[in-house]
Specification:
The chain is mainly α. The chain contains 16 helices and no strands. Helix 6 packs parallel to helix 9. It is globular, with a radius of gyration of 22 Å.
Length: 456
C-alpha cells in the first residue's frame, strides 16, 4: 500500500500536468499571436513615419484599458461554463453563453463611446498636438471592431470553459494574416485603396476582429458536438439572472486586470520624467517580460478551466490538488524564464539596441525583471485558480492594495523622491506583484482548506 502511493501520486500529477498543457498551450500560442499583431502594427507604422508610429502607440495605450476591462468582464463566462461542464449541466452552458453574447453587445456601447471620445485625455496628457488628429482617427477606426471583438471573446471563453482551446488558436493565425494584409492594403494604399496611414491600422484591426469573430462563430455553430448546448436555439431577450451572474464574477476580473495594466502604464509615464534612456530601457525590459508573461497568463486560463471543471465534478479536495499543481507548473516556467534573464541579459538587450549606455541601463532592469518573474507567475496562476472557484471580488481588492496602495506609491517614492531612478520604480513593481502573489495563493489555500475541513 505505502509503496504504491507515491507512484499513484506521481501518475496523478503527470495526468494533471498533461491536461493543463492540452488546455493551456494553445492559449499561450493564441496570446503570443495577439502580441504579434501589435508588433506588426508598430513595425509597419514605423515604416510610414514617426508621426504615424506615435499615433498608433498612443492610440494603442488608450485602447488597451478599455479592451482589458471589457475582456475581463466576459472572462467571467469561463469559470461559469467550466463548473456547469463539470456538473454536466449542459443546458445551462448554452444559456450562459447566449447571455454572454448579449452582454458583449451591451458593453460594446460604452466602450465605443469611450474610445471615440479620447480627445480630453490626450489634451490632459499633453500629447503633441501634431499627432492628436491622427490618433483620434485611429481610435474612431478601431472602434468599429469593438462589438465583434467582444462577441469573439464570449465564444472563445465558452470554448475554453469546455477545454476546447485549439480552435481559437487557429483563428488567431487567421487574424494575424488579415492583420498583415489589412495593414499593407489600407496603411500604404494598395489594391486601389487610399493611403490611410495610422488610421488604416485602425480599420485593419477592426477587420481582424470581424474575421476572428466569424471564424470562431462558424466553428461553434457548425460543430455537431455543440448542438447539445443549444447555444443558438431558443434565442430570447437578455435574462437579468444570467447577466447578473456574469457581471458579478466578470466585473471584478475586468477591474483587476485593468488595475494591473494601468500600474505598468503609469510607471511608464513616470519613467518619462527620468529621460529618454530611462524610457527606452524600461520599454525593452518590459517588452521582453511581457512576452514571458504570456506563458504564465495562458496557463492561468487553463488553471481557471481545470479548477472550475473539477470543482463542479469532483469536489474541493481534487480542486485543491488541480489548482496547486497548475500554480506549481506555472511558477516553474517563470523560474526558467528568470534564469534565462539572469544568465543572458546582454544577449536579450542586444536584440533591441546597440547603444552601450542604453544596454547598461536596460541590463539592470532585465535583472530586476528576472526577480519578478516568479512573483508574476505566482500571482497570475493564483488568481486563475481563484477564478475557477468564481472567487473574484477579494482578488480585485488584493490587486488594488498590491498595485495602487503598495507598488505604485513605493515605486514613486524610491524612483523619484529618493532619486533611485528606473531601478527604484521597478522595485515598486516587484513589491506590488509579490504582495499580490502571496495574498492570492494564501486565499486559494484558505478557501480550499476551509471547504475541505467542512466537507470532512
Amino acid at each position: 500500500m505505502q509503496s504504491s502511493h507515491p507512484e499513484s501520486l506521481y501518475n496523478r500529477t503527470l495526468k494533471e500536468i498533461k491536461i493543463l498543457f492540452q488546455i493551456g498551450i494553445p492559449v499561450v500560442i493564441g496570446n503570443l499571436l495577439q502580441i504579434s499583431m501589435s508588433v506588426v502594427d508598430t513595425v509597419m507604422a514605423g515604416n510610414l513615419s514617426p508621426r504615424d508610429l506615435a499615433a498608433v502607440a498612443v492610440g494603442g495605450s488608450l485602447f488597451m484599458p478599455v479592451f482589458m476591462l471589457g475582456g475581463g468582464i466576459l472572462m467571467g463566462l469561463s469559470p461559469i461554463v467550466a463548473q456547469h461542464f463539470g456538473r454536466r449541466d449542459l443546458h445551462l452552458i448554452g444559456k450562459s453563453t447566449r447571455q454572454a453574447l448579449w452582454l458583449s453587445l451591451m458593453i460594446s456601447i460604452p466602450a465605443i463611446f469611450l474610445i471615440r471620445n479620447t480627445a480630453p485625455v490626450l489634451n490632459l496628457l499633453n500629447v503633441d498636438p501634431e499627432i492628436i488628429p491622427l490618433t483620434l482617427g485611429y481610435m474612431d477606426a478601431i472602434s468599429w471592431g469593438i462589438p465583434f471583438l467582444y462577441l469573439y471573446l464570449a465564444l472563445r471563453y465558452f470554448n475554453e470553459g469546455i477545454s476546447v482551446t485549439k480552435r481559437a488558436m487557429y483563428v488567431g493565425f487567421i487574424g494575424l494574416f488579415f492583420n498583415i494584409l489589412g495593414n499593407y492594403t489600407l496603411m500604404f494604399g494598395k489594391f486601389g485603396f487610399p493611403r490611410l496611414g495610422a488610421i488604416g491600422t485602425g480599420y485593419a484591426s477592426s477587420i481582424v476582429m470581424l474575421a476572428m469573430f466569424i471564424g470562431l462563430l462558424v466553428y461553434t455553430y457548425r460543430r455537431k458536438a455543440y448542438q447539445r448546448f443549444d447555444i443558438f436555439n431558443n434565442v430570447k431577450l437578455p435574462d437579468p439572472k444570467y447577466i447578473g451572474e456574469l457581471l458579478r464574477i466578470g466585473v471584478p476580473i475586468g477591474v483587476s486586470m485593468t488595475m494591473e495594466v494601468s500600474m505598468f502604464a503609469v510607471i511608464g509615464l513616470i519613467m518619462g520624467s527620468l529621460g529618454t534612456y530611462a524610457v527606452a530601457a524600461h520599454q525593452i525590459a518590459l517588452n521582453f517580460a511581457s512576452i514571458t508573461f504570456m506563458l504564465a497568463f495562458g496557463l492561468s486560463a487553463a488553471i481557471t478551466v481545470r479548477v472550475g471543471q473539477v470543482a463542479g465534478r469532483s469536489g474541493i479536495q481534487q480542486t485543491r490538488f488541480s489548482g496547486f499543481t497548475g500554480i506549481s507548473v506555472s511558477t516553474l516556467f517563470m523560474c526558467f524564464t528568470a534564469l534565462l534573464m539572469y544568465l543572458l541579459p546582454n544577449q536579450i538587450v542586444g536584440l533591441y539596441t546597440n547603444d552601450e549606455d542604453l544596454i547598461t541601463l536596460a541590463v539592470n532592469l532585465i535583472y530586476m525583471a528576472a526577480i519578478f518573474q516568479v512573483s508574476d507567475g505566482l500571482q497570475v496562476s493564483g488568481s486563475g485558480a481563484l477564478r475557477g472557484l468564481k472567487d473574484t471580488k477579494v482578488p480585485m481588492i488584493v490587486n488594488l492594495i498590491a498595485y495602487w496602495i503598495i507598488g505604485l506609491p513605493l515605486g514613486y517614492y524610491l524612483g523619484i523622491m529618493r532619486n533611485w531612478g528606473p531601478e527604484g520604480l521597478w522595485i515598486g513593481l516587484i513589491a506590488g506583484l509579490t504582495v499580490a502573489a502571496i495574498l492570492h495563493n494564501l486565499r486559494f489555500n484558505s478557501l480550499t482548506k476551509q471547504r475541505t475541513t467542512i466537507l470532512s
